Amino acid sequence: MTHASEYLARRSRIRAVEMCSQARAAHIGSSLSVIDILSVLYCGEARVSPTQIDHPDRDCVIVSKGHAAAGTYAVLAEAGYFPPEWLDSYGMDGSLLGGHVTNSVPGVELSTGSLGHGLPFGTGLALAAQRQGSDRQVYVVMSDGECDEGTTWEAALFAAHHNLGNVTVLVDRNGIQSLAATEETLRLEPFGDKWRAFGWRVIEVDGHDHVQLASALHEASLPDEAPTAIICRTIKGKGVSFMENTVVWHYRPPTGEDMQLALIELADGAR
Amino acid sequence: MRDAFIWELTRRARKDPRITLVVGDLGYGVVDEFAADLPGQFVNAGVSEQAMMSMAAGLSASGYQVFVYSIANFPTLRCLEQIRNDVAYNNLDVTIVSVGAGLAYGNLGYTHHAVEDISIMRAIPNMRVICPSDPVEAIASVQACVINPGPKYVRLGKNGEPRLHDEAKVMDVGEPLLVREGSDLVIAATGAIVGECLQAAHDLAEEGVSPQVWSVPTIKPFPQAWLARLDGALPILTVEEHVREGGFGSAVLEAVHDGGLVRRVHRLSLSSAVSTQLGGAAYLRQLLGVSGSAIRDAARRLRTFGGC
Fold this sequence. Notes:
The complex is a heterodimer of chains A (271) and B (308). Chain A has 271 residues and is α/β, with parallel strands linked by helices. Chain A has a single domain, classed as Thiamin diphosphate (ThDP)-binding fold, Pyr/PP domains (Rossmann fold), CATH 3.40.50.970. Helices cover 42% and strands 11% of the residues of chain A. By secondary structure, chain B is an alpha/beta fold. Chain B folds into 2 domains: 2-156, Rossmann fold, CATH 3.40.50; 177-305, Rossmann fold (3-Layer(aba) Sandwich), CATH 3.40.50. In chain B, strand 1 (19-23), helix 2 and strand 2 form a beta-alpha-beta unit. The radius of gyration of chain B is 19 Å and the shape is globular. Chain B starts with a helix and ends with a helix. Chains A and B meet through helix 4 and helix 5 of A and helix 3 and helix 4 of B.
């Protein structure tokens, strides 16, 4: 399972860099940061399948950091939700695939792009599942910058109060938001303690280690009344040395030359 | 109006387990029976309107028919983007119910005056906008919400509004309702202010002016055919407890224009968007230009100048 998800992540990184370069699009850093998390979810840890996208008891993966569209679409295409050729149209006029995820694309559960919507929407799905006696899990993939939003904490209160143990948040904790480091913008640390204080079970992992991610998701799925926050320590721009841990690649579209250099590094990593 | 709506909703919810009522920590003495009798269909989301609205969208996406209840601007302006992105974008079956339309919470101050909500809510895609004028229309509004899937906004007054319709009549709030016959001009209004218009019409009749009075509960989708059917010779006076920009009167003007009609329309709306004055609804209506006397003055002027 882990081997398959790692292969999916490697393929998706290459795709995402190509997409952002060809479309002259932003947010490659955010995409490279979250691809491992999404790959593990879509490669077997979440109960989802490209042939059952409307199944009422499927798990629900909400990508709340909708700006990581290139990374999300790359993972979905590589996981079989739609033909990989669609990715070539990313960001083009009339394309189904734009700069923020929309649920007209197979596999996307919620259209996002404005931050802080995924978790509150997810609590509604989770409350419904609890009341309907469904064992579906709700996974909300969030950015750390998104934890500036008040709605994140409103929903965190709600999920804990209503014992929504079927909700798991995966925070892509890369430490960098739009203009600067999270700790220079609005300090989040001690981050795990904040979630614990809201009544959540907290698991901290290396967000690029598929074994750790899978193990944390397994732990989160064990019956418990408390919702779970998996804090995934990640590197923004992961996999491309000159993009790693920089603010600039939140927005800068890779030029053709940037893309070639990035693809060489990613191809090396893929071997 | 408020109690009538919740009474009817509770009655229907007892038979239909899909109906779920979500409140934002408001409704003391109003939603108690629903909460006590139907706990599995009730959620108090706390004082967190934004998360509440997204959560309601999530419930709806799982098959529930969700009614979100709060007061004034809290379930609308406070969580506008959640309504836009999570409810309307996904065209989900969520009904937003706000109590305290217009100046109903007059002496609670401007924070509690819902006077821009019609224009803002009717700009939201897929949103149906319903403003009942009395308890009978409020009950019929529940029916309209149940049979029309998708996002809806119901703008309720408070309590104690006079009944304008015969309760025995089965009504469709999608169409304007004639509350008084008349031959000199049309007064078209929405919400609780219809009662004020009806009283003004009775007073005008005594001095020989005979207005036709209509309640227009559903503003969006706008009842275009009704407008075309009105006697074109009569001028139209629109009355609303709402600001001028983008409200009910604006909707009428848009419909006149879009329908290629030629009508004289005069709009009566709140003269100021921000009232620093406190007082009951009647006092503030007087102060802000939508009182009975303002309606009578406007009607007399329109009658003198006539239609087109």
